[in-house]
Structures are given as structure tokens and as C-alpha cells.
Amino acid sequence: MRLSREAVEALDREDPLAPFRERFALPEGVVYLDGNSLGALPRITAAAVAGVVTEQWGGDLIRSWNSHDWIRLPQRVAAGIATIVGAAPHEVAVCDSTSVNLFKLLSAALELRPGRRVILSERGNFPTDLYVAQGLARLLKGRIELRLVDGPEEIAAALDDSVAVLMLTHVDYRTGRMHDMAGLTAAAHAAGALALWDLAHSAGAVPLDLAGCSADLAVGCGYKYLNGGPGAPAFLFVAERHQEVARQPLAGWMGHARPFAFDWHYEPAPGIDRFLAGTPPILSLAALAKGVALMAEADMAALRRKSLAMGELLIALFEERLAGHGFELASPREAERRGSQVSLAHEHGYPVMQALIARSVIGDFRAPDLLRFGFAPLYNRHMDVWRAVETLEAVMREESWKDPRFAERAAVT
Predict the structure, then answer these.
(1) Over the stretch 169-222, which tens digit does the pLDDT of each residue have?
(2) Is 141 a catalytic residue?
(3) Is 402 noted as a catalytic residue in this protein?
(4) Which whole number is the average pLDDT over 17-27?
(5) Measured distance between the N- and C-terminal CA atoms of the chain, rounded to whole angstroms
(6) Closest by alpha carbon to 371, among 386, 351, 401, 385?
(7) What's phi and psi for 2, nearest 5 deg?
(8) Is the pLDDT at 285 greater than 80, yes or no?
(9) Which of 132, 185, 299, 388 could form a disulfide with 195 if both were Cys (CB 3.0 to 4.6 A apart)?
(10) What are 268-283's pLDDT values in tens digits?
């Protein structure tokens, strides 16, 4: 039986998260299913950032570090993120980029496990994570090794007494496949290794419990599901049990125990603040603060239910309407194994996605052949999924993707 438009519209009428959509500035007529790359703009953000610029920076100038407590803004934003990832506020720091934070934590992990020289990961991990590990290995002149396995089923067997840290992305950026965080963390610990999780496609998208999983370390970004804006500051997590002995290599002044003592000798700050480095980026933090506060209002269980429902709807419509057009489902079919996205593989994935975007349905493409559709339940509707598949069916039926302009690769895919 074909799914009906009326039934999908009813899902939106009954959606308890529906009121959140009005709190985002979304272009009229656009279906936006790319929140797993860049989250939408919360309506409150522009005015909030403008206030920091004109009233605080413009009016109070440097006094704002004290009068508006700019200096503690990273900690306030971190406390909001902590509630989203299942951590204590003093276990999260907001700073730098995901890649820089990963470098810090990999370095710290290797020092926490002296005598072990292996960073274990999987070949399909997000490339920048592998690049960071490769760069650290070069810096240490071969004293450490990045060891890669082909898939999740090989991880447990590769955890031996040479592994210092297991580094994995919780939700795969290509397919949305989700690792068993608790199980793999336990396996790492049983082998004497630490577990470091990249939450870029998890934070704000799926329920997380870093404390309950006994995770050691984690990084995540602020510009996807946390809606912090392009290039928003990232965050890192260090379990309290490691904080007083863990050291990071970027010994900047904001990580000093007394930054304004201007002591020539570095003394790390107590707790999570030792993982800070440079001056906080106040304008981008002001934007991220609003996205985090908005996300923290939502019930994560309801968000997960809606995310899974949208994924199931897209897959059902895909199987019903796109058979014979050369697509394959690249994401796990089992809902509980997926994050908040569905990916379809197609030989001509890039021009197909560009043709779809030209019709105001925005997903994205990941090489070599994946069309990605991300679900941000705070602002996406079930009808967005309906329209996306309906438009994709038209693109394929009319063969509009064959227009040569859609094959021209842009700088960002």
C-alpha cells in the first residue's frame, strides 16, 4: 500500500516538537536536510550576536571581559553542552576546532598510557581524524602508530596490549551507522586502552550518556546539530577521573592556572580548564550559546523518536518510489543502528544531488557516490522527507540530473 500524503501531514500535526520549527529562520519553499553539515539559524541568534557586537564590544570595549563576563562564556556554553552529551559541566570545555581538540586529546591519551604506542581506529573513520593521528605520528617521529581495521566487527580483536587509545566516530559521517559506544568502550578498557569518541554527528542528534558509558575522552562540533553557525567553536570532554593527570600539548595562556599572573613558567589549570589554549572567540561563542540553549530545551527521547520516524519514512518512500533508478540504501536498514541521517548510493550521486538542490531540496554529497539526507528534528518536518523523495523521483524520471552544469564540481560538495 502506498504511503499517503495525508498520513504524513498527520504526523506533523501530532509532532510534539513542531513548535520548535518556528524558532528557526528557514527560507520559504526550501526543504533543508543538511543539518548534519550545517545547522539552521535560530531566530534569536542574529539579535544576540548583534547585541554583543554593538552594546558590549561597541559600548563597553575591553571592560566587557569583566562587566559581561566574557571570560567565563566558554564555561557557560560548556555546561549546556554537558547536559546534551550526558556529562558533568566540569567535564566539558568549549574551545578551538574539532581537529585541534582531537590533537590535544590524542596527545593526552598517549601520555596516560605510557609504553603503549598504537592509536586504533577504522579505515572508514572521518578523514580529518585520521589526518590528525597521522600528523601526531609524524611529530613524534614514528614513536607511535596509527593502526586501522576495516570495520567495526574487527575492532575487538585488534585491541591488544599495544593499543593506547581507541579513536572512533560514534555516527559514521557517510552512512549514519552508529557504533555501540558502551560496548566498545568496555572492550577498550578490558584491553587496558582508553576510548576517545568523535561526536560530530551525534551531539544534538542522538541521546548520549558519556558518563554512563564510562567514556574517557570525546570531541564534537558546534555547527551541525547544535546550530552554532559556520565554523562554530568545538567542544571536548575529559572524564573527571583523568583530569588531574592528563596533559595537553597546546599550553596556552587560557589553560594556565593563573592566566593574568603572566608567569613565564606554565602551570596547568585545575580540571577541564587546562584543555583551553587561546583567547575565547566571543562572537562565535555568543552564537553557539543560543543554539545550545535551544537544543537543551528539547526532550532527547522525543527528538530521537522523530529522527527515527523520519528515517523510516524516507527509506519506505525510497523503496516504494525509486526502484529501478539505480539507487541503493547505504545506511543500515535497522533503525537502532542509525544516527540521524539516511544515505543513498548512486553511480551519478553528485549531479543527482545538484539537480535536487536546484529544486530547493538541500542535502549533500559525499564521495564517491553518496547522497546524504540529515534529519534535524527541531526544525525538520515529516513533509520535508515526503517532498525530498517526491522531488528526487521527478529528477530521475525527467533525467534532469544529466544537465552538464550539474556535473561541474563545486569547491564544497
Answers:
(1) 999 999 999 999 999 999 999 999 999 999 999 999 999 999 999 999 999 999
(2) no
(3) no
(4) 97
(5) 36
(6) 351
(7) -70, 140
(8) yes
(9) 185
(10) 999 999 999 999 999 9
Selected catalytic residue, list 103, 223, 235, 365:
223
Contact 340, 176 (CB under 8 A): yes
The answer on pLDDT for 96 being more than 60 is yes
Question: Distance (Å, rounded) from C-alpha 134 to C-alpha 152?
Answer: 20
pLDDT of residue 142: 83
Is residue 32 annotated as part of the catalytic site, yes or no?
no
Q: Which phi and psi (to 5°) does residue 29 adopt?
A: 85, 0
Are 102 and 217 contacting, i.e. CB atoms less than 8 angstroms apart? no
Known catalytic membership, residue 131: no
- Which tens digit of pLDDT belongs to each residue from 225-237? 999 999 999 999 9
Residue 3 confidence (pLDDT):
83
Q: How far, in Å, are 16, 173, 233, 254, 293 from residue 178 at the CA level?
A: 25, 10, 24, 35, 25
**CA 241 – CA 169 distance, rounded (Å):** 22
pLDDT at 1 > cutoff 90: no
Cα–Cα distance, 333 to 47 (Å, whole number): 42
Q: In sequence order, what DSSP letters do the residues of 42-67 get, joined into one string?
A: EHHHHHHHHHIIIIIIIIIGGGHHHH
Catalytic-role residue among 104, 224, 338, 366:
224
Query: Who's near 179: CB < 8 A, 6+ residues apart?
Result: 152, 168, 169, 170, 171
Mean of all residue pLDDT scores within the chain: 97
The one catalytic residue in 126, 235, 237, 373 is 126
| Residue 285, CA distances (Å) to 33, 46, 77, 126 in order | 25, 13, 8, 25
Give the type of residue at 252: G
Reading the block at residue 121, the C-alpha cell is 581506529
User: Residue 290: is it exposed, middle or buried by C-beta count within 10 angstroms (0-12/13-18/19+)?
Assistant: buried
Catalytic residue among 104, 274, 366, 372: 372
**Band of pLDDT at residue 413, cut at 50, 70 and 90:** confident
Q: Strand 118-122's sheet: what is its strand order? A: 92-94, 235-238, 217-220, 194-198, 163-169, 118-122, 145-149
297: helix, strand or coil: helix
- Is there a catalytic annotation at residue 372? yes
The pTM of this model reads 0.96
